[in-house]
Amino acid sequence: MDHQHHSHLFPGVPLALGSAILFGASAPLSKWLLGSVDPWLLAGILYLGAGIGLALVHWVRPLIGLERVETPLSRPDLPWLAAVVLFGGIMAPLFLMLGLSLTTASSASLLLNLEGLATMLIAWLVFRENVDRRLLIGALAILLGAAILSFDGGAFRLDPGGLWIAVACLCWGIDNNLSRKLSSADPVQIAMIKGLAAGGTNVVLALSLGATLPLLSVIASGAIVGFLGIGVSLVMFMLGLRHLGTARTGAYFSLAPFIGALIAVIGFGDAVTLSLIAAALLMGIGLWLHLSERHEHEHVHEPLEHDHVHTHDDHHRHDHDGPVTEPHSHWHRHAPLRHKHPHYPDLHHRHGHG
């Protein structure tokens, strides 16, 4: 992205918010489907719908003349991909289902907000993404808003079920941070593999534990919700990671419960509650603090070689033997560069701060 001609918010922020909107919309729609399908089986159908839908997108692209400009997964990516599928696609949903069977819905809803917290803490403490007081307050306001929204007035208990849900959130936090290692590769390919692996695992486990297949119309509806709410949302989340880093993408994604509640109010006639208004105010403050962030200082780009989709801009000043179309992807080298502009901890700005 040429920072002299585009806002530093674009395209990372719209991608992260788009991911949150699609995922948030999937919650009330999934709740609507739960009347006619086992919860564990529905989780499998949602993920399988995401995987199969993205597989169609992946294989149809070349057939309709859409050139694949994204960098395909390579051998060094495979251990990271395996870890992402294991933590985010298999372990987390399993722990979540185990937790849900042992605790109250109110406790579960509140504890699910730990995913956003785990994602941000791992990004800041383990991967050393830069954070200042403004960002920290913004992230806490968003998370507090989500917690208020999740609280239904029932008694909160940290029982064994609650602990399993906390472990599931930790797994998703690890998954979100490890996904950053894959953010230069084709997000459709990654989300497709994750959806097929997670969906297949959950469907087999649910059926083996006695779940029965619902009507074909319910399966089809679940698959469509999964394709948009999990598949397309995950692709947008991966692209957000590429441009914003993990902590900021995670913070924007934490708006999903509010979006889900808003859709429930508008589409399903749910009441506008005091908690929804309080959450809107807190999340609005958090969102403003993040959107108005302007991280700018003189920084040095060390020599770097990698492969990802790019256009020729201030960060990509290499030559080609012949004419090329943009954007394109290939292995390229970055020469050392010192400059100053607003930036996020994206693919090219993962430097330390004093």
Architecture overview:
By secondary structure, the protein is mostly helical. It is 61% helix and 7% strand. The chain contains twelve helices and four strands, in the order ααααααααααααββββ. It has helices spanning 12-33, 39-63, 78-100, 105-111, 114-125, 133-150, 160-179, 187-208, 216-244, 246-253, 256-268, 274-291; strands at 296-301, 304-310, 328-334, 337-342. Strands 1-4 form a two-stranded antiparallel ribbon. The chain has a two-stranded antiparallel ribbon with strand order 2-3. The longest helix is centred in the middle third of the chain and has 29 residues, at 216-244.
* Span between termini: 26 Å
Q: N-to-C SSE series?
A: HHHHHHHHHHHHEEEE
Number of helices: 12
Nearest-integer average pLDDT: 87
Q: Number of DSSP strands?
A: 4
In terms of structural class, how would the helical and strand content be classed? Answer: mainly alpha
Low-confidence stretches: 1-5
Helix proportion: 55-70%
Could you describe the largest sheet, including whether it forms a barrel?
Answer: 2 strands, antiparallel
Q: Please state the overall shape, judged from the principal axes of the Cα atoms.
A: globular
Strand content: 5-15%
What is the topology, as strand order, of the major beta sheet? 1-4
Radius of gyration: 21 Å
Offer a quick outline of the entry.
The chain has helices at 12-33, 39-63, 78-100, 105-111, 114-125, 133-150, 160-179, 187-208, 216-244, 246-253, 256-268, 274-291, and strands at residues 296-301, 304-310, 328-334, 337-342. The protein is mainly alpha-helical.
